[in-house]
Amino acid sequence: MSKRRNLIFGLVRGLAAICIALLVATVLIFICAEGGSFSQKLSQTAGALHQLLIGPAFRANGSLSIKNLCDILASMIPTIFTGLSVCVMFSANQFNLGGEGGAMLGAFVAALCAIYLNLGAGIHVVVCILAGALACGAMMLIPALLKVKLDVSEMVCSLMLNYVVMYFIKYMVNSHLADKSKGQIQTFPFQPTAQVPQLVENGSKLSWGFVVAILFVVLTALFMYRTRWGYAIRMIGINKDFAMYSGMKVGAVIVLAQVLGGVLAGMGGGLEMLGRYSTFSWSALPGYGWTGITIAILAGNNPIFVPFAAFFMAYLDKGCNLMSTYSGVPYQLIDIIQAVIFLFFAAEQFLSRYRQKLVVRSTQEELAQKAAAEEGGVKHV
Protein backbone atom coordinates (compact mmCIF):
# COMPACT_ATOMS: atom_id res chain seq x y z
CA MET A 1 0.00 0.00 0.00
CA SER A 2 1.33 3.45 -0.94
CA LYS A 3 2.46 6.02 1.61
CA ARG A 4 -0.50 8.23 0.70
CA ARG A 5 -3.01 5.47 1.42
CA ASN A 6 -1.19 4.58 4.64
CA LEU A 7 -1.49 8.22 5.70
CA ILE A 8 -5.19 8.29 4.80
CA PHE A 9 -5.81 5.11 6.79
CA GLY A 10 -3.95 6.50 9.79
CA LEU A 11 -5.97 9.73 9.70
CA VAL A 12 -9.28 7.89 9.32
CA ARG A 13 -8.37 5.51 12.14
CA GLY A 14 -7.38 8.39 14.40
CA LEU A 15 -10.51 10.42 13.68
CA ALA A 16 -12.69 7.35 14.24
CA ALA A 17 -11.05 6.67 17.61
CA ILE A 18 -11.49 10.33 18.64
CA CYS A 19 -15.15 10.35 17.57
CA ILE A 20 -15.86 7.15 19.50
CA ALA A 21 -14.12 8.59 22.57
CA LEU A 22 -16.23 11.76 22.37
CA LEU A 23 -19.37 9.65 21.92
CA VAL A 24 -18.51 7.66 25.05
CA ALA A 25 -17.88 10.95 26.88
CA THR A 26 -21.28 12.26 25.76
CA VAL A 27 -23.05 9.16 27.09
CA LEU A 28 -21.23 9.43 30.43
CA ILE A 29 -22.07 13.14 30.72
CA PHE A 30 -25.73 12.34 30.06
CA ILE A 31 -25.74 9.58 32.70
CA CYS A 32 -24.09 11.85 35.30
CA ALA A 33 -26.25 14.88 34.46
CA GLU A 34 -28.55 16.14 37.18
CA GLY A 35 -32.26 16.57 36.57
CA GLY A 36 -35.31 14.39 36.73
CA SER A 37 -36.55 14.65 33.17
CA PHE A 38 -34.97 13.60 29.91
CA SER A 39 -35.07 17.18 28.58
CA GLN A 40 -33.22 18.51 31.64
CA LYS A 41 -30.50 15.89 31.28
CA LEU A 42 -30.25 16.63 27.55
CA SER A 43 -29.96 20.36 28.20
CA GLN A 44 -27.22 19.88 30.78
CA THR A 45 -25.37 17.49 28.45
CA ALA A 46 -25.53 20.05 25.64
CA GLY A 47 -24.16 22.75 27.95
CA ALA A 48 -21.32 20.51 29.10
CA LEU A 49 -20.41 19.57 25.52
CA HIS A 50 -20.42 23.25 24.58
CA GLN A 51 -17.88 23.94 27.32
CA LEU A 52 -15.81 20.92 26.25
CA LEU A 53 -15.72 21.57 22.50
CA ILE A 54 -16.34 25.32 22.09
CA GLY A 55 -15.42 26.86 25.44
CA PRO A 56 -11.61 26.58 25.11
CA ALA A 57 -11.54 28.73 21.98
CA PHE A 58 -14.51 31.10 22.26
CA ARG A 59 -16.04 33.34 24.92
CA ALA A 60 -19.72 33.29 25.82
CA ASN A 61 -20.39 36.15 23.35
CA GLY A 62 -18.87 34.14 20.51
CA SER A 63 -15.60 36.08 20.21
CA LEU A 64 -12.26 34.32 20.02
CA SER A 65 -10.55 33.94 23.41
CA ILE A 66 -6.87 34.75 22.89
CA LYS A 67 -6.12 34.17 26.58
CA ASN A 68 -7.57 30.64 26.48
CA LEU A 69 -5.69 29.82 23.27
CA CYS A 70 -2.44 31.04 24.83
CA ASP A 71 -3.19 28.86 27.87
CA ILE A 72 -3.59 25.88 25.54
CA LEU A 73 -0.31 26.61 23.75
CA ALA A 74 1.45 27.03 27.11
CA SER A 75 0.19 23.66 28.36
CA MET A 76 1.46 22.04 25.15
CA ILE A 77 5.12 22.76 25.96
CA PRO A 78 5.89 19.78 28.24
CA THR A 79 3.61 17.37 26.38
CA ILE A 80 5.25 18.14 23.02
CA PHE A 81 8.56 17.08 24.53
CA THR A 82 7.17 13.94 26.19
CA GLY A 83 5.35 13.12 22.94
CA LEU A 84 8.63 13.42 21.02
CA SER A 85 10.33 11.33 23.70
CA VAL A 86 7.81 8.52 23.29
CA CYS A 87 7.99 8.76 19.48
CA VAL A 88 11.74 8.14 19.53
CA MET A 89 11.55 5.24 21.99
CA PHE A 90 8.47 3.59 20.50
CA SER A 91 10.00 3.85 17.01
CA ALA A 92 12.72 1.51 18.28
CA ASN A 93 10.02 -0.78 19.72
CA GLN A 94 11.14 0.19 23.23
CA PHE A 95 8.07 0.62 25.41
CA ASN A 96 9.76 2.81 27.97
CA LEU A 97 7.25 4.55 30.27
CA GLY A 98 9.81 6.68 32.10
CA GLY A 99 8.81 9.98 30.52
CA GLU A 100 6.58 10.69 33.51
CA GLY A 101 9.34 10.48 36.10
CA GLY A 102 11.79 11.93 33.59
CA ALA A 103 9.81 15.15 33.24
CA MET A 104 9.65 15.48 37.03
CA LEU A 105 13.38 14.80 37.40
CA GLY A 106 14.24 17.29 34.65
CA ALA A 107 12.09 19.92 36.35
CA PHE A 108 13.69 19.20 39.74
CA VAL A 109 17.29 19.38 38.52
CA ALA A 110 16.54 22.52 36.50
CA ALA A 111 15.00 24.04 39.65
CA LEU A 112 18.09 23.20 41.73
CA CYS A 113 20.34 24.88 39.16
CA ALA A 114 17.99 27.85 39.03
CA ILE A 115 18.28 28.30 42.81
CA TYR A 116 21.90 27.52 43.60
CA LEU A 117 23.90 28.39 40.47
CA ASN A 118 25.00 31.98 39.95
CA LEU A 119 25.33 32.60 36.23
CA GLY A 120 24.66 35.49 33.90
CA ALA A 121 21.40 36.18 32.09
CA GLY A 122 20.93 34.05 28.99
CA ILE A 123 23.43 31.34 29.89
CA HIS A 124 21.82 30.52 33.26
CA VAL A 125 18.49 29.31 31.88
CA VAL A 126 20.25 27.27 29.17
CA VAL A 127 22.49 25.53 31.72
CA CYS A 128 19.49 24.77 33.96
CA ILE A 129 17.47 23.17 31.15
CA LEU A 130 20.44 21.20 29.80
CA ALA A 131 21.20 19.92 33.31
CA GLY A 132 17.62 18.69 33.66
CA ALA A 133 17.76 17.05 30.24
CA LEU A 134 21.06 15.28 30.98
CA ALA A 135 19.81 14.10 34.38
CA CYS A 136 16.79 12.47 32.75
CA GLY A 137 18.99 10.98 30.02
CA ALA A 138 21.16 9.42 32.73
CA MET A 139 18.03 8.09 34.42
CA MET A 140 16.98 6.37 31.19
CA LEU A 141 20.34 4.60 31.04
CA ILE A 142 19.11 2.32 33.82
CA PRO A 143 16.24 0.60 31.93
CA ALA A 144 18.22 0.81 28.66
CA LEU A 145 21.28 -1.01 29.99
CA LEU A 146 19.17 -3.53 31.90
CA LYS A 147 17.31 -4.26 28.65
CA VAL A 148 20.48 -4.69 26.59
CA LYS A 149 22.59 -6.56 29.14
CA LEU A 150 20.04 -8.62 31.09
CA ASP A 151 16.95 -8.53 28.85
CA VAL A 152 14.92 -6.90 31.64
CA SER A 153 11.59 -5.47 30.49
CA GLU A 154 12.08 -1.74 29.94
CA MET A 155 8.36 -1.21 30.51
CA VAL A 156 8.36 -2.64 34.04
CA CYS A 157 11.72 -1.12 34.95
CA SER A 158 10.85 2.40 33.77
CA LEU A 159 7.39 2.26 35.34
CA MET A 160 8.87 1.46 38.76
CA LEU A 161 11.62 4.02 38.23
CA ASN A 162 8.99 6.75 37.95
CA TYR A 163 7.97 6.21 41.56
CA VAL A 164 11.55 5.90 42.78
CA VAL A 165 12.24 9.32 41.26
CA MET A 166 9.04 10.83 42.64
CA TYR A 167 9.63 9.70 46.23
CA PHE A 168 13.30 10.67 46.10
CA ILE A 169 12.37 14.19 44.99
CA LYS A 170 9.64 14.43 47.65
CA TYR A 171 12.16 13.39 50.31
CA MET A 172 14.75 15.92 49.14
CA VAL A 173 12.27 18.79 48.99
CA ASN A 174 10.54 17.95 52.28
CA SER A 175 13.69 17.24 54.29
CA HIS A 176 16.50 19.35 52.84
CA LEU A 177 15.41 21.93 50.28
CA ALA A 178 12.14 23.38 51.59
CA ASP A 179 11.78 27.05 52.42
CA LYS A 180 10.61 26.81 56.04
CA SER A 181 9.30 30.38 56.00
CA LYS A 182 6.48 29.45 53.62
CA GLY A 183 3.14 27.97 54.54
CA GLN A 184 3.43 25.12 52.05
CA ILE A 185 6.26 22.80 51.09
CA GLN A 186 8.27 24.45 48.32
CA THR A 187 11.85 25.34 47.52
CA PHE A 188 13.45 28.77 47.65
CA PRO A 189 12.61 31.03 44.68
CA PHE A 190 14.43 30.70 41.38
CA GLN A 191 16.87 33.40 40.41
CA PRO A 192 15.42 35.79 37.77
CA THR A 193 18.26 34.94 35.34
CA ALA A 194 17.13 31.29 35.31
CA GLN A 195 13.52 31.84 34.31
CA VAL A 196 12.31 31.36 30.73
CA PRO A 197 11.02 34.70 29.34
CA GLN A 198 7.33 35.01 28.54
CA LEU A 199 6.32 35.05 24.89
CA VAL A 200 3.19 37.13 25.51
CA GLU A 201 2.29 39.21 28.55
CA ASN A 202 -1.38 38.33 29.06
CA GLY A 203 -1.12 36.15 32.14
CA SER A 204 -1.21 32.89 30.17
CA LYS A 205 2.31 31.66 31.08
CA LEU A 206 3.06 31.15 27.37
CA SER A 207 6.86 31.29 27.36
CA TRP A 208 9.58 31.03 24.74
CA GLY A 209 9.62 27.36 25.64
CA PHE A 210 6.88 26.92 23.04
CA VAL A 211 9.23 28.15 20.30
CA VAL A 212 11.92 25.79 21.60
CA ALA A 213 9.41 22.92 21.53
CA ILE A 214 8.53 23.57 17.88
CA LEU A 215 12.24 23.80 17.05
CA PHE A 216 12.82 20.38 18.62
CA VAL A 217 9.90 18.94 16.66
CA VAL A 218 11.78 19.86 13.48
CA LEU A 219 15.12 18.64 14.82
CA THR A 220 13.64 15.32 15.98
CA ALA A 221 11.96 14.78 12.60
CA LEU A 222 15.23 15.51 10.79
CA PHE A 223 17.08 13.16 13.12
CA MET A 224 14.57 10.34 12.68
CA TYR A 225 14.19 10.60 8.88
CA ARG A 226 17.43 12.17 7.63
CA THR A 227 20.21 10.53 9.66
CA ARG A 228 21.60 7.01 9.77
CA TRP A 229 20.99 6.83 13.51
CA GLY A 230 17.33 7.69 13.02
CA TYR A 231 17.12 5.08 10.26
CA ALA A 232 18.70 2.50 12.58
CA ILE A 233 16.17 3.31 15.32
CA ARG A 234 13.25 2.87 12.92
CA MET A 235 14.72 -0.29 11.37
CA ILE A 236 15.16 -1.93 14.77
CA GLY A 237 11.57 -1.05 15.57
CA ILE A 238 10.36 -2.68 12.36
CA ASN A 239 12.49 -5.82 12.50
CA LYS A 240 15.13 -6.22 15.17
CA ASP A 241 16.48 -9.51 13.80
CA PHE A 242 16.88 -8.11 10.28
CA ALA A 243 18.71 -5.09 11.70
CA MET A 244 21.02 -7.38 13.66
CA TYR A 245 21.86 -9.56 10.66
CA SER A 246 22.42 -6.40 8.60
CA GLY A 247 25.29 -5.50 10.89
CA MET A 248 23.61 -2.81 12.99
CA LYS A 249 24.71 -2.43 16.60
CA VAL A 250 21.29 -3.17 18.02
CA GLY A 251 22.24 -2.78 21.67
CA ALA A 252 23.86 0.62 21.14
CA VAL A 253 20.87 1.87 19.15
CA ILE A 254 18.41 0.69 21.82
CA VAL A 255 20.41 2.56 24.47
CA LEU A 256 20.59 5.63 22.21
CA ALA A 257 16.82 5.66 21.63
CA GLN A 258 15.98 5.46 25.32
CA VAL A 259 18.59 8.02 26.37
CA LEU A 260 17.44 10.47 23.69
CA GLY A 261 13.87 9.94 24.83
CA GLY A 262 14.96 10.75 28.36
CA VAL A 263 16.79 13.90 27.28
CA LEU A 264 13.66 15.16 25.50
CA ALA A 265 11.39 14.40 28.47
CA GLY A 266 13.78 16.08 30.90
CA MET A 267 14.04 19.15 28.69
CA GLY A 268 10.26 19.43 28.61
CA GLY A 269 10.08 19.24 32.40
CA GLY A 270 12.80 21.87 32.79
CA LEU A 271 11.17 24.30 30.37
CA GLU A 272 7.81 23.84 32.06
CA MET A 273 9.25 24.47 35.52
CA LEU A 274 11.29 27.56 34.62
CA GLY A 275 8.65 28.99 32.30
CA ARG A 276 5.57 28.60 34.50
CA TYR A 277 6.72 28.52 38.14
CA SER A 278 8.99 30.51 40.45
CA THR A 279 9.56 27.72 43.01
CA PHE A 280 9.53 23.91 42.88
CA SER A 281 6.53 22.50 44.76
CA TRP A 282 5.52 19.36 42.84
CA SER A 283 4.59 16.58 45.24
CA ALA A 284 3.33 14.05 42.67
CA LEU A 285 4.01 12.94 39.12
CA PRO A 286 2.80 15.70 36.77
CA GLY A 287 1.03 13.48 34.23
CA TYR A 288 2.98 14.74 31.22
CA GLY A 289 4.49 11.33 30.46
CA TRP A 290 1.13 9.55 30.24
CA THR A 291 -0.25 12.31 28.02
CA GLY A 292 2.89 12.03 25.89
CA ILE A 293 2.09 8.37 25.23
CA THR A 294 -1.38 9.27 23.95
CA ILE A 295 0.11 12.07 21.83
CA ALA A 296 2.69 9.74 20.27
CA ILE A 297 -0.01 7.18 19.50
CA LEU A 298 -2.21 9.83 17.89
CA ALA A 299 0.81 11.07 15.91
CA GLY A 300 1.67 7.57 14.71
CA ASN A 301 5.19 7.98 16.17
CA ASN A 302 5.82 10.72 13.60
CA PRO A 303 7.39 13.81 15.23
CA ILE A 304 5.83 16.17 12.66
CA PHE A 305 2.31 15.30 13.87
CA VAL A 306 3.17 15.64 17.58
CA PRO A 307 2.24 19.37 17.89
CA PHE A 308 -1.19 18.72 16.37
CA ALA A 309 -1.85 15.80 18.72
CA ALA A 310 -0.54 17.86 21.65
CA PHE A 311 -2.88 20.72 20.70
CA PHE A 312 -5.82 18.31 20.61
CA MET A 313 -5.02 16.91 24.05
CA ALA A 314 -4.38 20.39 25.52
CA TYR A 315 -7.65 21.63 24.01
CA LEU A 316 -9.53 18.71 25.57
CA ASP A 317 -7.81 19.32 28.90
CA LYS A 318 -8.87 22.97 28.86
CA GLY A 319 -12.39 21.96 27.82
CA CYS A 320 -12.64 19.45 30.67
CA ASN A 321 -11.51 22.14 33.12
CA LEU A 322 -14.21 24.52 31.88
CA MET A 323 -16.79 21.74 31.86
CA SER A 324 -15.93 20.80 35.44
CA THR A 325 -16.13 24.44 36.56
CA TYR A 326 -19.36 25.49 34.85
CA SER A 327 -21.28 22.24 34.35
CA GLY A 328 -20.31 20.15 37.37
CA VAL A 329 -18.95 17.28 35.25
CA PRO A 330 -15.89 15.60 36.85
CA TYR A 331 -12.56 16.70 35.36
CA GLN A 332 -11.43 13.04 35.27
CA LEU A 333 -13.52 12.64 32.12
CA ILE A 334 -10.40 13.47 30.12
CA ASP A 335 -8.75 10.31 31.49
CA ILE A 336 -11.65 8.27 30.11
CA ILE A 337 -11.32 9.97 26.71
CA GLN A 338 -7.58 9.23 26.64
CA ALA A 339 -8.21 5.61 27.64
CA VAL A 340 -10.77 5.07 24.87
CA ILE A 341 -8.45 6.61 22.26
CA PHE A 342 -5.59 4.42 23.47
CA LEU A 343 -7.83 1.33 23.44
CA PHE A 344 -8.90 1.73 19.82
CA PHE A 345 -5.41 2.57 18.62
CA ALA A 346 -4.02 -0.47 20.41
CA ALA A 347 -6.68 -2.75 18.90
CA GLU A 348 -5.05 -4.21 15.81
CA GLN A 349 -8.39 -5.28 14.31
CA PHE A 350 -9.93 -1.79 14.56
CA LEU A 351 -10.87 -0.82 10.95
CA SER A 352 -8.87 -3.80 9.65
CA ARG A 353 -11.49 -4.42 6.95
CA TYR A 354 -11.17 -0.83 5.74
CA ARG A 355 -7.39 -1.27 5.62
CA GLN A 356 -7.80 -4.51 3.66
CA LYS A 357 -9.99 -2.70 1.13
CA LEU A 358 -7.31 -0.02 0.73
CA VAL A 359 -4.67 -2.70 0.17
CA VAL A 360 -6.81 -4.50 -2.43
CA ARG A 361 -7.65 -1.23 -4.20
CA SER A 362 -4.00 -0.17 -4.25
CA THR A 363 -2.91 -3.56 -5.61
CA GLN A 364 -5.58 -3.50 -8.32
CA GLU A 365 -4.52 -0.02 -9.41
CA GLU A 366 -0.87 -1.07 -9.58
CA LEU A 367 -1.73 -4.16 -11.62
CA ALA A 368 -3.92 -2.11 -13.96
CA GLN A 369 -1.15 0.44 -14.48
CA LYS A 370 1.37 -2.34 -15.14
CA ALA A 371 -0.96 -4.05 -17.62
CA ALA A 372 -1.60 -0.74 -19.39
CA ALA A 373 2.12 -0.07 -19.61
CA GLU A 374 2.80 -3.54 -21.03
CA GLU A 375 -0.05 -3.18 -23.53
CA GLY A 376 1.29 0.20 -24.61
CA GLY A 377 4.75 -1.28 -25.06
CA VAL A 378 3.40 -4.11 -27.24
CA LYS A 379 1.49 -1.68 -29.47
CA HIS A 380 4.58 0.48 -29.83
CA VAL A 381 6.61 -2.53 -31.00
From TrEMBL:
<dbReference type="InterPro" id="IPR001851">
    <property type="entry name" value="ABC_transp_permease"/>
</dbReference>
<dbReference type="Pfam" id="PF02653">
    <property type="entry name" value="BPD_transp_2"/>
</dbReference>
<feature type="transmembrane region" description="Helical">
    <location>
        <begin position="328"/>
        <end position="347"/>
    </location>
</feature>
<dbReference type="GO" id="GO:0022857">
    <property type="term" value="F:transmembrane transporter activity"/>
</dbReference>
<feature type="transmembrane region" description="Helical">
    <location>
        <begin position="206"/>
        <end position="225"/>
    </location>
</feature>
<feature type="transmembrane region" description="Helical">
    <location>
        <begin position="246"/>
        <end position="268"/>
    </location>
</feature>
<keyword id="KW-1133">Transmembrane helix</keyword>
<feature type="transmembrane region" description="Helical">
    <location>
        <begin position="7"/>
        <end position="31"/>
    </location>
</feature>
<keyword id="KW-0812">Transmembrane</keyword>
<keyword id="KW-1003">Cell membrane</keyword>
<keyword id="KW-0472">Membrane</keyword>
<feature type="transmembrane region" description="Helical">
    <location>
        <begin position="72"/>
        <end position="90"/>
    </location>
</feature>
<feature type="transmembrane region" description="Helical">
    <location>
        <begin position="123"/>
        <end position="146"/>
    </location>
</feature>
<feature type="transmembrane region" description="Helical">
    <location>
        <begin position="97"/>
        <end position="117"/>
    </location>
</feature>
<dbReference type="GO" id="GO:0005886">
    <property type="term" value="C:plasma membrane"/>
</dbReference>
<feature type="transmembrane region" description="Helical">
    <location>
        <begin position="155"/>
        <end position="173"/>
    </location>
</feature>
<feature type="transmembrane region" description="Helical">
    <location>
        <begin position="288"/>
        <end position="316"/>
    </location>
</feature>
<protein>
    <submittedName>
        <fullName>ABC transporter permease</fullName>
    </submittedName>
</protein>
